[in-house]
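Please fill in the sequence for the structure shown.

STRUCTURE ENCODING:
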């Protein structure tokens, strides 16, 4: 599984970067033209074995927005830019993570890596998820495809995320880790694409 998974990662990551290069260039230009701010946003995340790394995204919020509010994002968050709303709707902001995949920091499919602040809250049992290579998408991403809207409807979004959403995500990913194969990874990728194509404004 490990060798087959890495082969699939490299094949699809390189192919994706090549095929999508015109889109990636257009998105980068649009982000820069909108406010002359940085194109990319690099955030510290916790990966395999608890090692931190810089996760790459197209910037979808105002520059410096991570210092102006909670770490979680809710639907209608005023920090999100106009083009950022479109990027997040179709998950295009996540595409630069194909570079993280090529650098062996991530896989195409695996638990979405968390920020150190939230990982520090993991129980000893939950920390088992750090034995898995983090990914661009995972079963939890499919189940919580409307996460921003879920958090929008609660009184304390960050508390709800930490106490309800995050534990469920970890449970789903630990279950995934016990049965993961190249075929289940392909199934998660297909499921993620279906969610994106069904997304509504």
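FILLED IN BY: designer on duty
SEQUENCE:
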């Amino acid at each position: 599984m490990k060798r087959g998974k890495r082969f699939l990662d490299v094949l699809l990551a390189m192919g994706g970067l090549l095929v999508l290069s015109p889109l990636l260039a257009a998105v980068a230009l649009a982000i820069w033209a909108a406010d002359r701010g940085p194109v990319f946003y690099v955030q510290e995340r916790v990966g395999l074995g608890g090692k931190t790394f810089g996760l790459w995204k197209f910037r979808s919020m105002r520059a410096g927005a991570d210092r102006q509010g909670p770490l979680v994002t809710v639907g209608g968050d005023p920090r999100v830019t106009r083009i950022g709303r479109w990027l997040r709707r179709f998950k295009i902001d996540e595409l630069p993570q194909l570079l993280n995949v090529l650098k062996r920091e991530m896989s195409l499919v695996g638990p979405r890596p968390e920020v150190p602040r939230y990982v520090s809250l993991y129980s000893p049992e939950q920390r088992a998820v750090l034995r898995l290579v983090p990914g661009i998408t995972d079963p939890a991403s499919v189940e919580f495809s409307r996460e921003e809207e879920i958090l929008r409807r609660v009184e304390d979004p960050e508390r709800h995320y930490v106490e309800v959403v995050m534990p469920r995500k970890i449970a789903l990913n630990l279950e995934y880790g016990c049965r993961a194969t190249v075929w289940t990874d392909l199934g998660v990728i297909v499921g993620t694409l279906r969610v994106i194509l069904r997304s509504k404004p």
